[in-house]
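Q: Give me the 3D complex with 2-acetamido-2-deoxy-beta-D-glucopyranose.
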Amino acid sequence: MKIIISLLLVAVTIFSVASAAAQCTFANGSDKYDFSAMKNTTGYTFKPSNTLGAATYYWNVCDICQQCATSEENTVSCQVSGGAWRTIGLLTDVQFTAITDQPNVKGATITYGGGPNCSNGQARTSRMRIQCSESETQIVSVSETSCIYDIFMTSKHACPGGGGSSSGGSGGKKGGIGGGWVFIIILLVSITVYIGVGIGVNYKVRGLRGAEMFPNIEFWRSVPGYVADGAIFIKGKITGSGGQSGYQQV
Ligand SMILES: *[C@@H]1O[C@H](CO)[C@@H](O)[C@H](O)[C@H]1NC(C)=O
Ligand SMILES: *[C@@H]1O[C@H](CO)[C@@H](O)[C@H](O)[C@H]1NC(C)=O
Ligand SMILES: CC(=O)N[C@H]1CO[C@H](CO)[C@@H](O)[C@@H]1O
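A: Here is the predicted complex, encoded as C-alpha coordinates.
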Protein backbone atom coordinates (compact mmCIF):
# COMPACT_ATOMS: atom_id res chain seq x y z
CA MET A 1 0.00 0.00 0.00
CA LYS A 2 2.70 2.39 1.06
CA ILE A 3 4.73 1.76 -2.09
CA ILE A 4 1.65 2.26 -4.31
CA ILE A 5 0.98 5.67 -2.79
CA SER A 6 4.63 6.58 -3.21
CA LEU A 7 4.65 5.56 -6.87
CA LEU A 8 1.41 7.44 -7.49
CA LEU A 9 2.85 10.65 -6.06
CA VAL A 10 6.00 10.31 -8.13
CA ALA A 11 3.88 9.64 -11.26
CA VAL A 12 1.78 12.76 -10.66
CA THR A 13 4.96 14.82 -10.26
CA ILE A 14 6.49 13.44 -13.46
CA PHE A 15 3.22 14.04 -15.32
CA SER A 16 2.99 17.69 -14.25
CA VAL A 17 6.58 18.33 -15.27
CA ALA A 18 6.09 16.60 -18.65
CA SER A 19 2.87 18.43 -19.47
CA ALA A 20 4.64 21.74 -18.98
CA ALA A 21 7.09 20.84 -21.77
CA ALA A 22 7.34 22.19 -25.30
CA GLN A 23 4.48 23.95 -26.99
CA CYS A 24 3.07 21.95 -29.88
CA THR A 25 0.27 24.06 -31.35
CA PHE A 26 0.16 26.59 -34.14
CA ALA A 27 -2.53 28.92 -35.43
CA ASN A 28 -2.48 30.15 -39.01
CA GLY A 29 -5.42 32.49 -39.29
CA SER A 30 -8.51 30.39 -38.66
CA ASP A 31 -6.54 27.14 -39.03
CA LYS A 32 -5.57 25.74 -35.64
CA TYR A 33 -3.05 22.93 -35.49
CA ASP A 34 -2.07 20.57 -32.71
CA PHE A 35 0.84 18.31 -33.62
CA SER A 36 1.02 16.41 -30.35
CA ALA A 37 -0.40 13.24 -31.94
CA MET A 38 2.77 13.11 -34.02
CA LYS A 39 5.00 12.44 -31.04
CA ASN A 40 6.69 9.12 -31.66
CA THR A 41 8.23 7.37 -28.67
CA THR A 42 10.35 5.14 -30.88
CA GLY A 43 11.44 8.14 -32.96
CA TYR A 44 11.12 8.58 -36.72
CA THR A 45 13.95 7.04 -38.71
CA PHE A 46 15.05 7.62 -42.25
CA LYS A 47 18.07 6.61 -44.24
CA PRO A 48 18.11 8.54 -47.51
CA SER A 49 19.21 6.47 -50.46
CA ASN A 50 20.64 9.48 -52.29
CA THR A 51 23.79 11.56 -52.10
CA LEU A 52 23.68 11.96 -48.34
CA GLY A 53 25.61 8.75 -48.30
CA ALA A 54 25.85 6.79 -45.13
CA ALA A 55 23.97 9.07 -42.74
CA THR A 56 20.83 7.91 -40.96
CA TYR A 57 18.43 10.39 -39.43
CA TYR A 58 16.43 10.13 -36.23
CA TRP A 59 13.92 12.70 -35.04
CA ASN A 60 10.73 13.35 -33.16
CA VAL A 61 8.01 15.99 -33.37
CA CYS A 62 7.19 18.08 -30.28
CA ASP A 63 9.30 15.90 -28.01
CA ILE A 64 12.90 14.88 -27.56
CA CYS A 65 14.16 11.99 -29.64
CA GLN A 66 15.22 9.22 -27.25
CA GLN A 67 17.22 7.43 -29.95
CA CYS A 68 19.66 10.28 -30.40
CA ALA A 69 22.79 9.27 -28.54
CA THR A 70 24.14 12.80 -28.36
CA SER A 71 25.13 14.78 -25.30
CA GLU A 72 22.55 17.54 -25.83
CA GLU A 73 19.60 16.70 -23.61
CA ASN A 74 17.09 18.71 -25.68
CA THR A 75 17.87 16.96 -28.94
CA VAL A 76 14.82 16.60 -31.16
CA SER A 77 16.70 15.40 -34.24
CA CYS A 78 20.09 13.98 -35.06
CA GLN A 79 22.11 12.19 -37.69
CA VAL A 80 24.46 9.29 -37.28
CA SER A 81 27.20 8.80 -39.78
CA GLY A 82 30.05 6.34 -39.47
CA GLY A 83 29.16 5.78 -35.82
CA ALA A 84 29.31 9.50 -34.99
CA TRP A 85 26.13 11.11 -33.62
CA ARG A 86 25.37 14.76 -34.18
CA THR A 87 22.50 16.92 -32.96
CA ILE A 88 20.76 18.75 -35.82
CA GLY A 89 17.95 20.43 -33.89
CA LEU A 90 16.95 21.36 -30.34
CA LEU A 91 13.43 21.02 -28.96
CA THR A 92 13.86 24.30 -27.13
CA ASP A 93 14.81 26.30 -30.24
CA VAL A 94 11.52 26.01 -32.12
CA GLN A 95 9.53 28.05 -34.57
CA PHE A 96 6.27 27.27 -36.35
CA THR A 97 5.61 28.81 -39.76
CA ALA A 98 2.88 28.53 -42.35
CA ILE A 99 3.36 26.61 -45.58
CA THR A 100 3.02 29.25 -48.27
CA ASP A 101 4.80 27.92 -51.35
CA GLN A 102 1.83 25.84 -52.49
CA PRO A 103 -1.83 26.86 -52.50
CA ASN A 104 -4.36 24.60 -50.79
CA VAL A 105 -1.73 22.80 -48.77
CA LYS A 106 -2.48 22.60 -45.06
CA GLY A 107 0.10 21.97 -42.41
CA ALA A 108 3.10 23.80 -41.02
CA THR A 109 6.84 23.92 -41.01
CA ILE A 110 8.38 23.32 -37.61
CA THR A 111 11.94 24.56 -37.49
CA TYR A 112 14.22 23.28 -34.75
CA GLY A 113 17.50 25.17 -34.65
CA GLY A 114 20.38 25.44 -32.22
CA GLY A 115 22.49 22.51 -33.39
CA PRO A 116 26.29 22.79 -33.44
CA ASN A 117 27.65 25.28 -35.97
CA CYS A 118 28.80 24.22 -39.38
CA SER A 119 32.05 25.56 -40.75
CA ASN A 120 29.97 28.23 -42.54
CA GLY A 121 28.68 29.49 -39.16
CA GLN A 122 25.19 28.09 -39.70
CA ALA A 123 23.80 26.40 -36.60
CA ARG A 124 22.58 22.97 -37.70
CA THR A 125 18.83 23.21 -38.10
CA SER A 126 16.04 20.74 -38.84
CA ARG A 127 13.20 22.12 -40.91
CA MET A 128 10.25 19.77 -40.67
CA ARG A 129 7.61 20.36 -43.27
CA ILE A 130 4.54 18.48 -42.09
CA GLN A 131 1.64 18.50 -44.51
CA CYS A 132 -1.92 17.52 -43.82
CA SER A 133 -3.01 14.32 -45.56
CA GLU A 134 -5.76 11.75 -45.20
CA SER A 135 -3.51 8.90 -44.15
CA GLU A 136 -1.24 7.93 -41.28
CA THR A 137 2.10 9.64 -40.83
CA GLN A 138 4.49 9.08 -43.72
CA ILE A 139 8.06 10.19 -44.26
CA VAL A 140 8.47 11.60 -47.76
CA SER A 141 12.10 12.67 -47.79
CA VAL A 142 15.08 13.99 -45.88
CA SER A 143 17.65 16.21 -47.55
CA GLU A 144 20.37 18.64 -46.57
CA THR A 145 21.43 22.01 -47.89
CA SER A 146 24.28 23.80 -46.12
CA CYS A 147 23.49 22.35 -42.71
CA ILE A 148 19.73 22.91 -42.94
CA TYR A 149 18.11 19.50 -42.84
CA ASP A 150 14.75 19.35 -44.60
CA ILE A 151 12.47 16.65 -43.32
CA PHE A 152 9.25 16.23 -45.28
CA MET A 153 6.34 14.32 -43.79
CA THR A 154 2.62 13.97 -44.42
CA SER A 155 0.07 13.02 -41.78
CA LYS A 156 -3.57 13.13 -40.87
CA HIS A 157 -2.36 14.48 -37.52
CA ALA A 158 -1.13 17.63 -39.27
CA CYS A 159 -4.55 18.86 -40.33
CA PRO A 160 -6.27 21.90 -38.85
CA GLY A 161 -9.06 21.69 -36.33
CA GLY A 162 -8.86 18.03 -35.45
CA GLY A 163 -11.50 16.35 -37.63
CA GLY A 164 -13.03 18.92 -39.92
CA SER A 165 -16.52 20.12 -39.23
CA SER A 166 -17.49 21.11 -42.75
CA SER A 167 -19.82 23.92 -43.73
CA GLY A 168 -22.53 25.51 -41.68
CA GLY A 169 -22.56 26.13 -37.97
CA SER A 170 -22.21 29.68 -36.82
CA GLY A 171 -21.15 29.07 -33.27
CA GLY A 172 -19.80 25.58 -33.36
CA LYS A 173 -16.00 25.56 -33.26
CA LYS A 174 -14.92 24.01 -29.99
CA GLY A 175 -11.37 24.75 -28.97
CA GLY A 176 -11.20 21.58 -26.93
CA ILE A 177 -8.81 20.94 -24.08
CA GLY A 178 -6.25 18.18 -23.98
CA GLY A 179 -6.45 15.08 -21.82
CA GLY A 180 -3.70 16.51 -19.65
CA TRP A 181 -5.79 19.49 -18.63
CA VAL A 182 -8.87 17.33 -18.00
CA PHE A 183 -6.71 15.22 -15.69
CA ILE A 184 -5.39 18.28 -13.85
CA ILE A 185 -8.86 19.80 -13.47
CA ILE A 186 -10.32 16.54 -12.12
CA LEU A 187 -7.36 16.25 -9.76
CA LEU A 188 -7.80 19.82 -8.47
CA VAL A 189 -11.56 19.40 -8.00
CA SER A 190 -11.02 16.10 -6.17
CA ILE A 191 -8.40 17.66 -3.89
CA THR A 192 -10.68 20.61 -3.11
CA VAL A 193 -13.63 18.39 -2.30
CA TYR A 194 -11.42 16.09 -0.22
CA ILE A 195 -10.01 18.94 1.86
CA GLY A 196 -13.37 20.73 2.17
CA VAL A 197 -15.35 17.67 3.23
CA GLY A 198 -12.49 16.47 5.43
CA ILE A 199 -12.26 19.74 7.33
CA GLY A 200 -16.05 19.85 7.69
CA VAL A 201 -16.21 16.34 9.14
CA ASN A 202 -13.25 16.90 11.46
CA TYR A 203 -14.73 20.17 12.73
CA LYS A 204 -18.35 19.14 13.19
CA VAL A 205 -18.19 15.41 13.91
CA ARG A 206 -14.80 14.96 15.55
CA GLY A 207 -14.66 18.41 17.14
CA LEU A 208 -11.08 19.00 16.02
CA ARG A 209 -9.61 22.52 15.78
CA GLY A 210 -6.59 24.17 14.17
CA ALA A 211 -4.20 22.20 11.96
CA GLU A 212 -5.70 18.95 13.23
CA MET A 213 -8.85 19.72 11.19
CA PHE A 214 -6.96 18.97 7.97
CA PRO A 215 -8.11 15.54 6.75
CA ASN A 216 -5.76 12.64 7.50
CA ILE A 217 -3.18 15.07 8.83
CA GLU A 218 -0.96 12.31 10.23
CA PHE A 219 -0.83 10.64 6.84
CA TRP A 220 0.04 13.85 4.99
CA ARG A 221 2.78 14.64 7.47
CA SER A 222 4.41 11.37 6.44
CA VAL A 223 4.06 11.99 2.67
CA PRO A 224 7.54 13.49 2.21
CA GLY A 225 8.93 10.22 3.55
CA TYR A 226 6.77 8.22 1.12
CA VAL A 227 7.99 10.26 -1.84
CA ALA A 228 11.57 9.64 -0.81
CA ASP A 229 10.81 5.90 -0.48
CA GLY A 230 9.20 5.89 -3.92
CA ALA A 231 12.20 7.60 -5.48
CA ILE A 232 14.57 5.13 -3.83
CA PHE A 233 12.36 2.22 -4.98
CA ILE A 234 12.42 3.42 -8.61
CA LYS A 235 16.13 4.14 -8.48
CA GLY A 236 16.65 0.64 -7.13
CA LYS A 237 14.62 -0.83 -10.02
CA ILE A 238 16.62 1.15 -12.56
CA THR A 239 20.04 0.47 -11.17
CA GLY A 240 19.10 -3.10 -10.28
CA SER A 241 20.22 -2.66 -6.70
CA GLY A 242 16.71 -2.65 -5.24
CA GLY A 243 16.17 -5.06 -2.41
CA GLN A 244 12.48 -5.86 -3.09
CA SER A 245 11.91 -9.52 -3.71
CA GLY A 246 9.14 -10.92 -5.88
CA TYR A 247 9.98 -8.81 -8.91
CA GLN A 248 11.85 -10.19 -11.91
CA GLN A 249 14.86 -8.30 -13.07
CA VAL A 250 14.56 -7.71 -16.79
C1 LIG B 1 7.38 6.09 -35.44
O1 LIG B 1 8.47 6.02 -36.33
C2 LIG B 1 8.75 4.74 -36.85
C3 LIG B 1 10.04 4.78 -37.67
O2 LIG B 1 10.02 5.82 -38.63
C4 LIG B 1 7.54 4.27 -37.67
O3 LIG B 1 7.76 2.95 -38.15
C5 LIG B 1 6.30 4.30 -36.79
O4 LIG B 1 5.17 3.99 -37.56
C6 LIG B 1 6.12 5.67 -36.18
N1 LIG B 1 5.00 5.65 -35.25
C7 LIG B 1 4.02 6.55 -35.36
C8 LIG B 1 2.96 6.47 -34.30
O5 LIG B 1 3.98 7.40 -36.23
C1 LIG C 1 28.05 29.86 -34.22
O1 LIG C 1 28.10 30.87 -35.20
C2 LIG C 1 27.54 32.13 -34.78
C3 LIG C 1 27.65 33.11 -35.93
O2 LIG C 1 27.08 32.58 -37.09
C4 LIG C 1 28.30 32.64 -33.56
O3 LIG C 1 27.69 33.84 -33.11
C5 LIG C 1 28.29 31.61 -32.47
O4 LIG C 1 29.07 32.04 -31.39
C6 LIG C 1 28.80 30.27 -32.98
N1 LIG C 1 28.67 29.29 -31.91
C7 LIG C 1 29.63 28.44 -31.60
C8 LIG C 1 29.32 27.47 -30.50
O5 LIG C 1 30.69 28.41 -32.19
C1 LIG D 1 -6.27 29.82 -43.36
C2 LIG D 1 -5.24 30.88 -43.30
O1 LIG D 1 -5.45 31.93 -42.68
N1 LIG D 1 -4.10 30.65 -43.95
C3 LIG D 1 -2.98 31.60 -43.93
C4 LIG D 1 -1.76 30.95 -43.37
O2 LIG D 1 -0.66 31.87 -43.41
C5 LIG D 1 -0.33 32.32 -44.69
C6 LIG D 1 0.90 33.19 -44.56
O3 LIG D 1 0.87 33.99 -43.41
C7 LIG D 1 -1.51 33.05 -45.32
O4 LIG D 1 -1.20 33.43 -46.64
C8 LIG D 1 -2.72 32.12 -45.33
O5 LIG D 1 -3.85 32.82 -45.79
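A quick observation: The chain has two domains: 2-15+177-239, 24-158.
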